[in-house]
Design a protein that fits this description.
This protein has one domain: Hypothetical Protein Pfu-838710-001, CATH 2.40.320. It is elongated. It is built from five helices and ten strands; from the N terminus they run E-H-E-E-E-E-E-H-E-H-E-E-E-H-H.
């Protein structure tokens, strides 16, 4: 186990993550809850409504909007089947034309639309996304339950992807061995690692592949 304790809600060095999606992880979720150490009450149970921006030409930059703010993470590497992601940018609406030109649309890896305004509201931005042939905004509701097992940040969540209900379970840490031990303890070793981009694309039909179960 790592010598540096993870702290919920604090930013540490880039984390590795295991996450998977399917219809039922009831047994793994029970084990996760029983193995968890006490955690802050604020992360026991959370709800959020988010919009993920999906690009047909990009699988390495994860873009979502929550509480009127844009958050983009970029894929760094995969080590032993676990993915590492880094923050790429954070922005608020109204968002400047220069940010869309220099950061947002390059992250989608698509043709740049005509940007004729100095700033864009969230509604104007989403209208541009809706009108782009290679982009799609997808509504995602998350009902999350937080845990900490083997010094890894964990959660089980019920997720609605454009209304389609799936389940997700994850473990993340700066330490690979801590995640591997957690997967073994909750009996998920060997389960496919599926990030949010991949899961959403499978649900909306952009990727012809099932979820983990």
């Amino acid at each position: 186990m790592s010598t540096t304790n993870m702290k919920i809600g604090e930013i540490s060095k880039p984390r590795f993550e295991f996450r998977t999606f399917g219809q039922n992880f009831e047994e793994a979720a029970k084990l996760m809850a029983r193995l968890s150490v006490p955690i802050p009450k604020k992360v026991w149970e959370r709800n959020s409504d988010e919009i993920y921006i999906l690009s047909k030409t990009n699988d390495i930059n994860n873009t979502k909007i929550r509480d009127g703010k844009m958050d983009i993470k970029t894929f760094v590497q995969t080590v032993d089947g676990l993915e590492q992601w880094n923050p790429l940018m954070k922005g608020e609406f109204p968002i400047a034309k220069e940010v869309l030109e220099n950061d947002v649309f390059p992250a989608f890896k698509v043709e740049m639309p005509a940007l004729t305004q100095d700033t864009y509201t969230i509604e104007e931005f989403l209208a541009m996304i809706e009108g782009h042939k290679d982009l799609q905004g997808v509504k995602v509701h998350k009902h999350r339950f937080g845990y900490m097992v083997n010094d890894t940040l964990c959660e089980v969540a019920e997720v609605l992807i454009n209304g389609a209900k799936v389940c997700t379970i994850n473990s993340e840490s700066t330490e690979l061995e801590d995640i591997k031990k957690t997967l073994n303890d909750i009996q998920l070793t060997g389960t496919e690692n599926i990030n949010y981009l991949q899961a959403i694309k499978r649900v909306i039909g952009w990727i012809n592949k099932p979820l983990a179960n």
